[in-house]
Structures are given as structure tokens and as C-alpha cells.
Design brief:
260 residues; mainly alpha
Length: 260
């Protein structure tokens, strides 16, 4: 942990440049540019809302389904995009790693920060929908950064794990594509958690993303402070995966040069 903090302080300029490069590459020759960060979640939510609310007749009692859907969607989309980019970050920057010394932690971390900035932009259309649907905003919304920080730490930890595995096993890029699709459907984004049979609910609760989404929805949809257990699950899972990710990455990073 100390090494990562030291590397961030020492190489913060490089970290900034990597994040800035990702923005330039992503929005190069794009007419709307950064506006896609606002439009994409809205368009995705619209399609999913039409499919699940009309074709599958999914609805949520006492809450607005659009807000329910988007509050889960932006959480999962952040994790999905950030973890995918972090997974390929070490392999994709082989030319830099092979020429000069750069702390390899920087690459997965920069991807999570880059996607994190886009994530903050997606909060704009989320709050627009919250206001337009009359869901309302109260002082409890000031607690949301806790859940977002836990989500970030969890994603960074998973990013370290995936980046390490992908160096030694390139098939991971294809395997993870299937895994993330399955993960999306076992996370209550489009449907109510209560729809899951009671005997399977414990298994679904082992999913850390469930708790980050639960924390967010408890505040946004039900205007209440999540109970203590939810805070503990969010913080505990994020720290657990962050430290596991750092341990695995540190253990194998010196061997990267022989495989990338």
C-alpha cells in the first residue's frame, strides 16, 4: 500500500498524462465528444427500460422504474468498463514498460480513474431523471460518495487481479467477456431482488456489486440511510479485493517483462 501511495505521488504527472491520453483517444474525431458520457447511459437505459418494462412487464412497487434501472446501470457500467480497460492496461503498454522504468501499478489505476471521471459525468443525466420523475433529492444524497469510493476501490483491486492474469493468460480477454455478461444478469439491475427465490438470495448477496447498488438505491429511491450492515459489507468487500489485488499484482509484476 505504501509503495502504491509513493508511486502515485512520485509519478502523478505520468498518471495525469495517461488519463488525459485516454480521453483524447476515446473522443478523437467524435462530433459530440464528452457529451457521449451523458448520452450513452440515457440511451442504454431507454432501450433496457422499453424491453424490460414492456416486453417482460418488469415493474418496481413504490419507486420509479427508470430511476431504479439507471441507478444500478451506472454502477455496473463503471465497473464493467473500468475492469475491462484495466485488464488490458499492462499488455497494452508493453512499449513503455519495455523501455523505461515505470511503476506498473500506474496503468490499471489510470484506467479506473479515467472511467471514474466519465462515471461522475453520468451522474448528471441520473439526477436529471431523478428530478424529472419527481423522485426527489434530500440531504442523504451526501452519503453517496462513500458507496462510490467503495466501488472504486473494489474496481481497482479487480483491475490489478485481471491485469495480472491477462499477462500470463491472454485467453482471459475472451473469458472475461463471457463472465461480465453473466455478472450483469446475476446483479439486480433490471429486476427486483425480491424476485429471486429465497434459497438463492444468499448466493446473490455474495456479489459485491449488489451491495454498492443496494447502498445507492437505498438513498436515492427510498430516501433513507442504509443500515450499518450495508456500510460494513460495502467497505469490507472493497478493502478485501483491493488488498488481494495489490498482493497478487506485487507478487507477479516483476515477471511481466518476460510475458508481455
Amino acid at each position: 500500500m505504501k509503495n502504491i501511495i509513493y508511486s502515485i505521488k512520485k509519478y502523478k504527472f505520468l498518471l495525469y498524462e495517461l488519463v488525459a491520453r485516454d480521453f483524447k483517444v476515446k473522443y478523437k474525431r467524435s462530433v459530440l465528444g464528452v457529451l457521449w458520457s451523458l448520452l450513452y447511459p440515457v440511451l442504454t437505459m431507454t432501450v433496457m427500460a422499453l424491453v424490460f418494462s414492456n416486453m417482460f412487464r418488469v415493474s418496481m412497487p413504490d419507486v420509479n422504474y427508470l430511476v431504479y434501472l439507471m441507478s444500478g446501470l451506472i454502477i455496473f457500467n463503471y465497473y464493467s468498463e473500468a475492469s475491462n480497460l484495466a485488464m488490458s492496461s499492462v499488455v497494452g503498454n508493453f512499449s513503455l514498460i519495455n523501455k523505461v522504468y515505470i511503476p506498473k501499478y500506474i496503468f490499471p489505476l489510470s484506467k479506473c480513474i479515467f472511467v471514474g471521471i466519465n462515471f461522475l459525468l453520468t451522474l448528471i443525466p441520473l439526477y436529471a431523471i431523478i428530478l424529472l420523475t419527481g423522485t426527489g433529492v434530500n440531504i442523504h444524497h451526501l452519503l453517496l460518495p462513500f458507496g462510490f469510493i467503495c466501488l472504486f476501490m473494489f474496481t481497482v483491486g479487480m483491475g490489478f487481479i485481471l491485469a495480472t492474469i491477462s499477462v500470463f493468460l491472454r485467453d482471459m480477454f475472451y473469458i472475461y467477456g463471457v463472465m461480465i455478461t453473466l455478472w450483469m444478469y446475476v446483479t439486480p439491475i433490471m429486476y427486483d431482488f425480491a424476485m429471486i427465490p429465497a434459497k438463492f438470495q444468499l448466493i446473490f448477496k455474495l456479489n459485491p456489486l449488489y451491495w454498492y447498488i443496494y447502498f445507492t438505491r437505498d438513498i436515492i429511491l427510498y430516501n433513507q440511510v442504509p443500515n450499518l450492515n450495508v456500510w460494513i459489507y460495502c467497505l469490507g468487500s472493497s478493502l478485501l479485493f483491493l488488498f488481494i489485488g495489490m498482493f497478487i499484482f506485487k507478487k507477479y509484476q516483476d515477471k511481466f517483462i518476460y510475458y508481455v
